[in-house]
Amino acid sequence: MAEPIEKVSIVISHGSLEGVYPGLIMANGARMEGIEATVFFTFFGLDAIIDKRMDNLGVATVGNPAMRMPGGIKMPTWLGAIPGMSRFATYMMKKEMEKLDIPPVREFIEMIHDAGGEIYACKATVDMFHLSENDFCSSLDEIITVGEFYEKSAGAKIIFT
User: Fold this and answer.
1) What is the total count of domains within the chain?
2) Which of 5, 62, 67, 71, CA to CA, is 20 to 30 A from 83?
3) Within a domain: 28
């Protein structure tokens, strides 16, 4: 029998809805199961915790060969380049998530944080994008280096989404 997972560290590096939600769902699920959860946002994933951007994440339609249209019809990748397609896909995805009572990004991050999940931003990326702690939502615990992330992740299963 496998040992139970006690701790997960999740890395979120994409800033689109489909890039952010898998990590948030996994972190929330971990906390609901009593598993320690650390979420480390890096590169464009930082948009999910930047206060002025987190409420406006969209769906990436260009270069997404798995993109489906309403009804499950596969969408040709070239169709994603048409102006307005990303906005339409974002609207549709948010509408479907509302039906399933999946919270918006800001609320989801607050839920994870309030449940004891730790929220971190990558220092190298923060510096590279010329950001400061004031740019982030109140759920951010700290801006840390990759080395500090590994220290905090000792004994954890690291998941890269």
Assistant:
1) 1
2) 71
3) yes
